[in-house]
UniProtKB/TrEMBL annotation:
Residues reported to bind NAD(+): G10, P11, R12, G13, R14, M15, G89, T90, T91, A115, P116, N117, F118
GO cellular component, one term: cytosol
The protein, known as: 4-hydroxy-tetrahydrodipicolinate reductase
Function: Catalyzes the conversion of 4-hydroxy-tetrahydrodipicolinate (HTPA) to tetrahydrodipicolinate.
PANTHER family: 4-HYDROXY-TETRAHYDRODIPICOLINATE REDUCTASE 1, CHLOROPLASTIC-RELATED (PTHR20836:SF0), DIHYDRODIPICOLINATE REDUCTASE (PTHR20836)
Organism (species): Rossellomorea marisflavi
EC assignment: 1.17.1.8
Active-site residues per Swiss-Prot or TrEMBL entry: H145 (proton donor/acceptor), K149 (proton donor)
Residues given in the record as (S)-2,3,4,5-tetrahydrodipicolinate binding sites: H146, G155, T156
Alphabetically ordered keywords of this record: Amino-acid biosynthesis, Cytoplasm, Diaminopimelate biosynthesis, Lysine biosynthesis, NAD, NADP, Oxidoreductase
Protein backbone atom coordinates (compact mmCIF):
# COMPACT_ATOMS: atom_id res chain seq x y z
CA UNK A 1 0.00 0.00 0.00
CA UNK A 2 1.25 3.49 -0.84
CA UNK A 3 2.44 5.66 2.05
CA UNK A 4 -0.05 8.39 3.07
CA UNK A 5 1.41 11.57 4.59
CA UNK A 6 -0.82 12.84 7.38
CA UNK A 7 -1.02 16.09 9.37
CA UNK A 8 -3.17 16.31 12.50
CA UNK A 9 -4.85 19.45 13.82
CA UNK A 10 -5.62 19.32 17.54
CA UNK A 11 -2.91 16.78 18.53
CA UNK A 12 -3.10 17.54 22.30
CA UNK A 13 -6.85 16.92 22.47
CA UNK A 14 -8.66 13.82 23.70
CA UNK A 15 -9.23 12.61 20.13
CA UNK A 16 -6.07 14.15 18.69
CA UNK A 17 -3.82 12.12 21.02
CA UNK A 18 -5.46 8.88 19.90
CA UNK A 19 -5.17 9.92 16.26
CA UNK A 20 -1.43 10.64 16.66
CA UNK A 21 -0.96 7.12 18.08
CA UNK A 22 -3.04 5.60 15.27
CA UNK A 23 -1.02 7.33 12.56
CA UNK A 24 2.30 6.46 14.23
CA UNK A 25 1.28 2.80 14.58
CA UNK A 26 -0.04 2.36 11.03
CA UNK A 27 2.66 1.15 8.64
CA UNK A 28 1.35 2.93 5.56
CA UNK A 29 0.64 6.24 7.34
CA UNK A 30 3.37 8.79 8.03
CA UNK A 31 2.81 11.66 10.49
CA UNK A 32 4.53 14.63 8.85
CA UNK A 33 3.33 17.54 11.03
CA UNK A 34 0.82 18.67 13.62
CA UNK A 35 -1.09 21.93 13.96
CA UNK A 36 -1.35 23.22 17.51
CA UNK A 37 -2.25 26.89 18.01
CA UNK A 38 -0.37 26.91 21.33
CA UNK A 39 2.61 24.96 19.94
CA UNK A 40 2.67 22.81 23.08
CA UNK A 41 2.38 19.43 21.36
CA UNK A 42 5.36 17.09 21.52
CA UNK A 43 4.81 14.78 18.58
CA UNK A 44 8.35 14.25 17.27
CA UNK A 45 7.38 16.06 14.06
CA UNK A 46 7.21 19.78 13.19
CA UNK A 47 4.55 21.63 15.21
CA UNK A 48 2.90 24.60 13.50
CA UNK A 49 0.76 27.29 15.09
CA UNK A 50 -1.48 27.57 12.04
CA UNK A 51 -2.53 25.51 9.05
CA UNK A 52 -1.14 28.14 6.66
CA UNK A 53 2.34 27.82 8.22
CA UNK A 54 2.07 24.04 8.08
CA UNK A 55 1.09 24.02 4.40
CA UNK A 56 3.83 26.51 3.54
CA UNK A 57 6.33 23.97 4.93
CA UNK A 58 4.91 20.82 3.28
CA UNK A 59 1.52 19.76 1.93
CA UNK A 60 0.34 16.47 3.48
CA UNK A 61 -1.83 14.00 1.56
CA UNK A 62 -4.47 14.14 4.30
CA UNK A 63 -5.32 16.53 7.13
CA UNK A 64 -7.12 15.01 10.12
CA UNK A 65 -9.03 17.70 11.99
CA UNK A 66 -10.08 17.14 15.61
CA UNK A 67 -10.43 20.65 16.99
CA UNK A 68 -13.48 22.88 17.59
CA UNK A 69 -16.47 23.70 15.35
CA UNK A 70 -15.16 27.12 14.19
CA UNK A 71 -11.54 26.04 13.76
CA UNK A 72 -12.54 22.77 12.10
CA UNK A 73 -14.63 24.54 9.50
CA UNK A 74 -11.86 27.05 8.68
CA UNK A 75 -9.23 24.29 8.52
CA UNK A 76 -11.33 22.13 6.19
CA UNK A 77 -11.97 25.08 3.90
CA UNK A 78 -8.30 26.10 3.88
CA UNK A 79 -7.21 22.51 3.22
CA UNK A 80 -9.56 22.16 0.24
CA UNK A 81 -8.37 25.50 -1.14
CA UNK A 82 -4.81 24.14 -0.99
CA UNK A 83 -5.87 20.89 -2.68
CA UNK A 84 -5.39 18.87 0.54
CA UNK A 85 -7.87 16.10 1.42
CA UNK A 86 -9.40 16.21 4.91
CA UNK A 87 -10.81 13.70 7.33
CA UNK A 88 -12.86 15.71 9.77
CA UNK A 89 -14.11 14.36 13.07
CA UNK A 90 -14.88 17.79 14.46
CA UNK A 91 -18.62 18.29 14.97
CA UNK A 92 -20.91 21.30 15.10
CA UNK A 93 -20.85 22.38 11.43
CA UNK A 94 -24.02 23.98 10.05
CA UNK A 95 -25.87 22.60 7.02
CA UNK A 96 -24.76 25.68 5.07
CA UNK A 97 -21.10 25.07 5.95
CA UNK A 98 -21.37 21.42 4.87
CA UNK A 99 -22.93 22.47 1.57
CA UNK A 100 -20.25 25.10 0.96
CA UNK A 101 -17.44 22.63 1.68
CA UNK A 102 -19.02 20.03 -0.61
CA UNK A 103 -19.16 22.52 -3.48
CA UNK A 104 -15.52 23.44 -2.85
CA UNK A 105 -14.42 19.76 -2.78
CA UNK A 106 -16.19 19.11 -6.07
CA UNK A 107 -14.79 22.27 -7.68
CA UNK A 108 -11.31 21.09 -6.69
CA UNK A 109 -12.09 17.46 -7.55
CA UNK A 110 -10.66 16.13 -4.27
CA UNK A 111 -11.97 14.05 -1.41
CA UNK A 112 -13.13 15.16 2.01
CA UNK A 113 -14.85 13.06 4.67
CA UNK A 114 -16.76 14.66 7.51
CA UNK A 115 -17.82 11.95 9.93
CA UNK A 116 -19.76 13.00 13.05
CA UNK A 117 -19.00 9.59 14.55
CA UNK A 118 -16.11 7.28 13.61
CA UNK A 119 -17.24 4.35 15.79
CA UNK A 120 -18.58 1.42 13.76
CA UNK A 121 -21.09 0.60 16.51
CA UNK A 122 -22.43 4.14 16.46
CA UNK A 123 -22.91 4.00 12.69
CA UNK A 124 -24.85 0.74 13.12
CA UNK A 125 -26.94 2.33 15.89
CA UNK A 126 -27.82 5.17 13.48
CA UNK A 127 -28.62 2.77 10.63
CA UNK A 128 -30.75 0.52 12.89
CA UNK A 129 -32.61 3.59 14.14
CA UNK A 130 -33.25 4.70 10.56
CA UNK A 131 -34.61 1.22 9.71
CA UNK A 132 -36.78 1.07 12.82
CA UNK A 133 -38.21 4.56 12.26
CA UNK A 134 -40.29 3.27 9.33
CA UNK A 135 -42.23 1.15 11.80
CA UNK A 136 -41.96 3.36 14.92
CA UNK A 137 -42.19 7.00 13.77
CA UNK A 138 -42.41 8.45 17.33
CA UNK A 139 -38.79 8.96 18.31
CA UNK A 140 -36.77 10.70 20.99
CA UNK A 141 -32.97 10.80 21.05
CA UNK A 142 -31.00 10.95 24.27
CA UNK A 143 -27.32 11.74 23.80
CA UNK A 144 -24.95 11.67 26.75
CA UNK A 145 -21.40 13.05 26.75
CA UNK A 146 -18.55 14.18 29.00
CA UNK A 147 -18.91 17.69 30.42
CA UNK A 148 -16.08 19.22 28.33
CA UNK A 149 -18.01 18.90 25.07
CA UNK A 150 -18.56 22.26 23.32
CA UNK A 151 -21.45 21.50 20.96
CA UNK A 152 -25.00 20.44 21.77
CA UNK A 153 -26.73 18.51 20.44
CA UNK A 154 -23.94 16.15 19.42
CA UNK A 155 -23.05 15.70 15.76
CA UNK A 156 -24.16 12.08 16.08
CA UNK A 157 -27.63 13.05 17.31
CA UNK A 158 -28.04 15.55 14.48
CA UNK A 159 -26.87 12.96 11.93
CA UNK A 160 -29.25 10.36 13.38
CA UNK A 161 -32.21 12.72 13.00
CA UNK A 162 -31.09 13.58 9.46
CA UNK A 163 -30.89 9.89 8.53
CA UNK A 164 -34.34 9.24 9.99
CA UNK A 165 -35.69 12.24 8.07
CA UNK A 166 -34.66 10.51 4.82
CA UNK A 167 -37.15 7.67 5.40
CA UNK A 168 -39.82 8.98 7.78
CA UNK A 169 -42.63 11.45 7.12
CA UNK A 170 -42.34 14.66 9.14
CA UNK A 171 -44.35 14.19 12.34
CA UNK A 172 -45.46 16.28 15.31
CA UNK A 173 -44.86 14.22 18.44
CA UNK A 174 -46.44 14.36 21.87
CA UNK A 175 -49.71 16.07 22.76
CA UNK A 176 -50.66 18.88 20.33
CA UNK A 177 -51.43 21.17 23.30
CA UNK A 178 -48.32 20.35 25.32
CA UNK A 179 -46.60 23.34 26.96
CA UNK A 180 -43.20 23.57 28.59
CA UNK A 181 -43.55 24.98 32.11
CA UNK A 182 -39.75 25.01 32.28
CA UNK A 183 -38.01 26.09 29.07
CA UNK A 184 -36.11 23.26 27.39
CA UNK A 185 -38.00 20.49 29.16
CA UNK A 186 -38.83 18.81 25.85
CA UNK A 187 -35.30 19.22 24.49
CA UNK A 188 -34.34 20.45 21.04
CA UNK A 189 -36.43 19.43 18.05
CA UNK A 190 -35.58 18.37 14.50
CA UNK A 191 -38.45 17.43 12.22
CA UNK A 192 -40.57 16.46 15.23
CA UNK A 193 -37.83 14.32 16.80
CA UNK A 194 -36.91 15.56 20.26
CA UNK A 195 -33.21 15.53 21.17
CA UNK A 196 -32.04 15.63 24.79
CA UNK A 197 -28.39 16.36 25.67
CA UNK A 198 -26.85 15.19 28.95
CA UNK A 199 -23.37 16.43 30.00
CA UNK A 200 -21.69 14.81 33.00
CA UNK A 201 -18.15 14.04 34.16
CA UNK A 202 -17.41 10.35 33.82
CA UNK A 203 -19.26 9.95 30.54
CA UNK A 204 -17.46 9.51 27.19
CA UNK A 205 -19.95 9.30 24.27
CA UNK A 206 -23.30 7.55 24.44
CA UNK A 207 -26.58 7.68 22.56
CA UNK A 208 -29.94 6.06 23.05
CA UNK A 209 -32.66 6.24 20.41
CA UNK A 210 -36.09 5.48 21.83
CA UNK A 211 -38.88 4.51 19.47
CA UNK A 212 -42.36 4.22 20.92
CA UNK A 213 -45.31 2.19 19.61
CA UNK A 214 -48.67 1.04 20.98
CA UNK A 215 -47.77 -0.75 24.21
CA UNK A 216 -44.08 -1.15 23.32
CA UNK A 217 -40.76 0.66 23.28
CA UNK A 218 -37.71 -0.13 21.19
CA UNK A 219 -34.44 1.26 22.55
CA UNK A 220 -31.29 1.27 20.40
CA UNK A 221 -28.19 2.27 22.33
CA UNK A 222 -24.50 2.69 21.65
CA UNK A 223 -21.74 3.44 24.16
CA UNK A 224 -18.18 4.54 23.48
CA UNK A 225 -16.30 3.87 26.72
CA UNK A 226 -12.91 4.77 25.24
CA UNK A 227 -11.81 6.99 22.36
CA UNK A 228 -9.98 4.03 20.81
CA UNK A 229 -13.49 3.06 19.61
CA UNK A 230 -13.23 5.84 17.00
CA UNK A 231 -9.85 4.92 15.55
CA UNK A 232 -10.72 2.11 13.13
CA UNK A 233 -13.15 4.56 11.51
CA UNK A 234 -10.45 7.24 11.27
CA UNK A 235 -8.13 4.73 9.57
CA UNK A 236 -10.74 3.70 6.99
CA UNK A 237 -11.48 7.37 6.28
CA UNK A 238 -7.82 8.29 5.72
CA UNK A 239 -7.49 5.40 3.26
CA UNK A 240 -10.79 6.08 1.50
CA UNK A 241 -10.47 9.85 1.18
CA UNK A 242 -7.50 9.31 -1.14
CA UNK A 243 -9.89 7.78 -3.72
CA UNK A 244 -12.70 10.37 -3.50
CA UNK A 245 -13.42 13.42 -5.63
CA UNK A 246 -16.22 14.83 -3.51
CA UNK A 247 -17.21 15.45 0.11
CA UNK A 248 -18.82 12.55 1.94
CA UNK A 249 -20.75 13.36 5.12
CA UNK A 250 -21.07 10.32 7.38
CA UNK A 251 -19.06 7.13 7.78
CA UNK A 252 -22.12 5.07 6.80
CA UNK A 253 -21.63 6.29 3.22
CA UNK A 254 -18.20 4.72 2.83
CA UNK A 255 -18.56 1.45 4.76
CA UNK A 256 -19.40 -1.59 2.64
N1 LIG B 1 -16.22 12.07 14.80
C1 LIG B 1 -16.03 11.42 15.94
O1 LIG B 1 -16.11 10.18 16.01
C2 LIG B 1 -15.68 12.19 17.16
C3 LIG B 1 -15.67 13.54 17.09
N2 LIG B 1 -15.34 14.28 18.18
C4 LIG B 1 -15.26 15.71 17.94
O2 LIG B 1 -13.90 16.03 17.78
C5 LIG B 1 -13.65 17.35 18.26
C6 LIG B 1 -12.53 17.29 19.30
O3 LIG B 1 -12.99 16.58 20.41
P1 LIG B 1 -12.03 16.34 21.68
O4 LIG B 1 -10.76 15.73 21.24
O5 LIG B 1 -12.86 15.66 22.69
O6 LIG B 1 -11.78 17.85 22.13
P2 LIG B 1 -10.53 18.47 22.89
O7 LIG B 1 -10.97 19.77 23.45
O8 LIG B 1 -9.95 17.45 23.81
O9 LIG B 1 -9.48 18.71 21.71
C7 LIG B 1 -9.54 19.76 20.81
C8 LIG B 1 -8.13 20.25 20.65
O10 LIG B 1 -8.06 21.21 19.60
C9 LIG B 1 -7.16 22.22 20.02
N3 LIG B 1 -7.33 23.42 19.23
C10 LIG B 1 -8.21 24.44 19.40
N4 LIG B 1 -8.03 25.38 18.47
C11 LIG B 1 -7.00 24.95 17.67
C12 LIG B 1 -6.33 25.49 16.55
N5 LIG B 1 -6.66 26.69 16.04
N6 LIG B 1 -5.32 24.77 16.01
C13 LIG B 1 -4.96 23.58 16.52
N7 LIG B 1 -5.56 23.02 17.60
C14 LIG B 1 -6.56 23.70 18.15
C15 LIG B 1 -7.45 22.38 21.49
O11 LIG B 1 -6.40 23.03 22.17
P3 LIG B 1 -6.74 23.96 23.47
O12 LIG B 1 -7.68 23.15 24.31
O13 LIG B 1 -5.43 24.19 24.11
O14 LIG B 1 -7.39 25.21 22.93
C16 LIG B 1 -7.57 20.93 21.91
O15 LIG B 1 -6.32 20.37 22.23
C17 LIG B 1 -14.98 17.84 18.80
O16 LIG B 1 -15.64 18.61 17.81
C18 LIG B 1 -15.77 16.57 19.06
O17 LIG B 1 -17.16 16.76 18.99
C19 LIG B 1 -14.99 13.72 19.36
C20 LIG B 1 -15.02 12.36 19.49
C21 LIG B 1 -15.38 11.49 18.41
O1 LIG C 1 -17.30 15.34 21.65
C1 LIG C 1 -17.32 14.09 21.71
O2 LIG C 1 -16.79 13.47 22.64
C2 LIG C 1 -17.97 13.35 20.63
N1 LIG C 1 -18.40 14.01 19.60
C3 LIG C 1 -19.04 13.47 18.46
C4 LIG C 1 -20.45 13.98 18.36
O3 LIG C 1 -20.68 15.18 18.60
O4 LIG C 1 -21.35 13.22 18.02
C5 LIG C 1 -18.92 11.97 18.38
C6 LIG C 1 -19.00 11.26 19.70
O5 LIG C 1 -20.31 11.32 20.13
C7 LIG C 1 -18.04 11.88 20.70
Amino acid sequence: MEMIKVSIAGPRGRMGKEAVTLVEETNHFELVSVIDHKQEASAGVPVFASLEECFAHELPDVLIDLTTPEVGYTHTKTALEHGVRSVVGTTGFTAEQLEELKTLAEDKGIGCIIAPNFAIGAVLMMKFSQMASKYFPDIEILELHHDQKLDAPSGTAVKTAEMIREVRESKEQGHPDEKETLQGARGAEMDGIHIHSVRLPGLVAHQQVMLGGEGELLTIRHDSFHRKSFMSGVKVCVETVMELKTLVYGLENILE
